[in-house]
Amino acid sequence: MRTVAVVGASLAGLSAVRSLRKRGYDGRLVVVGDELHRPYDRPPLSKEFLAGTVGEAELALETDDEDLRAEWLLGVRATGLDHAARTLRLSGGREVQA
Ligand SMILES: Cc1cc2nc3c(=O)[nH]c(=O)nc-3n(C[C@H](O)[C@H](O)[C@H](O)COP(=O)(O)OP(=O)(O)OC[C@H]3O[C@@H](n4cnc5c(N)ncnc54)[C@H](O)[C@@H]3O)c2cc1C
User: Domain 3-80 class?
Assistant: First the structure.
């Protein structure tokens, strides 16, 4: 595997990336997320964040000391997968090739 593309830059996507690195995958990792934000914790949004006891910075799911060596394509939607061509199509006409 030369490239792994993960669609969805939230909890599941981050967990997939962490898992790949933990298991020794050393290749290119691309995370595609249609939101503009790096992974954040959603449950506090309707609780502590709403109540004002937790700030935006505390919602981040990544830790300061982790280096996942991933390319984050944010604000970009995955629109299709061409399995035969090993290509993920993205909004705006971009592609990620495996
Ligand atoms: C306000 C709120 C409160 C919550 N409270 C609780 C709670 O108290 N307890 C609990 O257990 N759970 C709670 N949840 C649910 C919990 O946050 C989710 O279970 C968790 O976020 C799921 O993570 P996920 O990565 O699977 O999916 P998501 O967090 O939904 O992330 C999926 C990501 O993929 C992106 N995406 C989807 N399709 C594409 C595409 N084609 N291209 C690019 N990007 C794409 C989406 O924009 C999104 O950012 C809450 C959720 C919210 C919103």
Answer: alpha beta
